[in-house]
Amino acid sequence: MDLxxxxxxxxxxxRIEAIILRPARGEPAVSVRExxxxxxxxxxxxxxxxxxxxxxxxxxxxxxxxxxxHLPLVAGWCGLDYLDPLRLRRNLLISGLxxxxxxxxxxxxxxxxxxxxxxxxxxxxxxDPCSKMAAELGAGSYNALxxxxxxxxxxxxxxxxxxxxxxxxHAVRTLPGKTARPD
Length: 183
Description:
Layout: H1 3-6, E1 14-21, E2 30-32, E3 34-38, E4 42-43, H2 47-53, E5 63-67, H3 71-77, E6 92-95, E7 109-115, E8 119-126, H4 132-137, H5 141-145, E9 151-157, E10 159-162, E11 166-174
Parallel strand pairs: 5-6
Antiparallel strand pairs: 1-2, 1-6, 1-11, 3-4, 3-10, 5-9, 7-8, 7-11, 8-9
């Protein structure tokens, strides 16, 4: 089996463990049981969906994802006993999948993921921490989150996302005119 095939195989599906909306800048994030994902807008009720209406949001960052398994690691690196995911302000907490692996290393290949039965997303890149994390989580938290801040995604097909929804590979797309070598 070659590297291209290996990069398209996952041992288990993922699972949505939490859905978090940020109603407005500076306001506390809220946990919800379900949310509507809309292409070009993000999760309805999240501040980024309102920003997109005014043309300020990049389509590469319609939603943010964080890997549940990284919560205890980041907490430890921040000197915390526990890290409440609301403090990270990422939209979807996913278990069971390496989020970095959800993005193809090949520029000519895109991996499309399905959440539940209808929402489709594509990972667009890392969700780097911002300086606000230092204010929220304390000294050293910016560096604790570097490389572990989660991923960003664009929504390809909308619908309802619910806690407990399965996250699995839906399709592999080959892009014409791109080089097949990994980055």
